[in-house]
Amino acid sequence: MVSSNSAATILLERDVDLEPILKVSDIKQYLYCPRIIYFTYVLPVEKRTTSKMEIGKEEHMKTAKLEGRRRLRVYGLAEGERFFNTPLFSPRLGLEGVLDMYIAVPRGSFPVDFKNTCRLAVNHKYQLLAYALLLEDRLGHPVRGGFIYLIPAGRAVYVEATPEARLYTKRLLGAIRALIRREHFPAVSRSAGRCADCEYKNYCGDVG
User: Fold this and answer.
1) Is residue 33 assigned to a domain?
2) What's the N-to-C CA distance of the chain in angstroms?
3) Domain count of the fold of the chain
C-alpha cells in the first residue's frame, strides 16, 4: 500500500518529467516578449525569418572564425584555451543550449556569448547567466561570470554571476514553465518598438 505522501511525491515527479526541456534562448525571448514563449510551446506556429536574424547568424559565423586568431586581451585574460559551439544540458535545471564559446584558464572557466549589437541588454545578461549555470554542471566547478562579446563594437562586457543574479535566472525559468503550464496568453510587450521586426508579429491580433 502506497502512503498519501508517497503518492503525492510520485505525482510531483511525473509532473516534472512532463514539463518541456527549456532552451537558454527562451530566457532571452521571455524577457524580450513573453508571447514568444506562448507561440513556441503553447500554440506552436511557423515563425517568419527576418533579415535581422539572417544578418545575426552571418555575423556569428564570421566572429567565430576570427576568434581563434584574436588575442584574449579583449577579455582581460593573458592566456587560456577556447572551446567553440559547446552543447550543454542540465537535467537538474531542465535546460539546454549551445554555447558560442568558453575560455578555460587555470583559475576557472568563462562562458562567452556573441551578440550582434552595440549595447548590452538585460535579456542578454540573463541568457549568459543561464549558460554559466549549465557550464557549472558540465565542468563540475563554479563559474563566477562570463562575457558578452559585442560584435560591432569589438569589445567584451563582463557579467558577474552573483548569488542574486543566479537566483533571478532560476526564477525566470520557473516563470517560463508557469506560463507554459497555465497556457496563459501574455499581454503585449511594453515596448511597442520590439514588435516591428518580430517574427511572430502576424499572430498578435492586437499589434498594428
Assistant:
1) no
2) 59
3) 1
CA 60 to chain centre: 16
3-state secondary structure of 206: coil
14-55: pLDDT as tens digits: 444 578 999 999 999 999 999 999 999 999 998 766 556 566
Give domain status of residue 170, yes or no.
yes
Beta strands 81-90 and 22-23: pairing type? unpaired
Q: Please report, for the domain that includes residue 113, its CATH number.
A: 3.90.320.10
Q: Which domain holds residue 78?
A: 47-176
Place of cell 560591432: 152
Of the candidates 65, 167, 53, which has an alpha carbon nearest to the alpha carbon of residue 117?
53
- pTM score > 0.70 for this model? yes
Are 79 and 105 in contact by the 8 Å Cβ rule? The answer is yes
Closest by CA position to 95, among listed 60, 59, 65, 135: 135
Q: 155, 146 in Cβ contact below 8 A?
A: no
Distance CA 175, CA 30 (A): 9
Mean pLDDT score of the chain, rounded to an integer?
86
